[in-house]
Amino acid sequence: MFFLPRQTLTAGEVLAVWRKNPLVTHRDELKRRTEAKKKTQPQTPIPRRLAPAIRRLEATFHFQANDDFRRRELVYGRRAAALFYFRGIADEDQIERAIIRPISLIKDGGRTHDPLRDQRLTALDIVVLETMEAVENALVDGHPVLLIDRLRRAYAFNLDDYPVRNIDKPTNENVLKGPQEGFTERLETNIALLRRYVRSPDLIVRRREIGQKNRTGIVVAYIQSLANPHLVADIESRLDAIEALEYDWVKSVEQLIEERPYSLLPSMLTTERPDRAMAHLMEGHVVILQDNLPYAFIAPATYWNVFHASEDHYQRLPYAWFIRSIRTIAFFLTLLTPGLYIAATNYHVEMIPLDLLMSISGSREVVPFPAVLEVFLMELSFELIREASVRIPSQIGPTIGIVGALILGQAAVQAGLVSPILVIVVAITGLASFTQPDLSLNLALRIGRFAFLVASALLGFLGLSLLLAVTLAYAVSFKSFGVGYYAPWAPYTPSSQDVFLRRPAPEETTLPQALLLRTKTRLDASGFFALFGRLSRRRAEKRTQAEGAGRSGRVGR
Question: Exposure check for the chain: N or C terminus, fewer CB within 10 A?
Answer without folding.
Answer: C
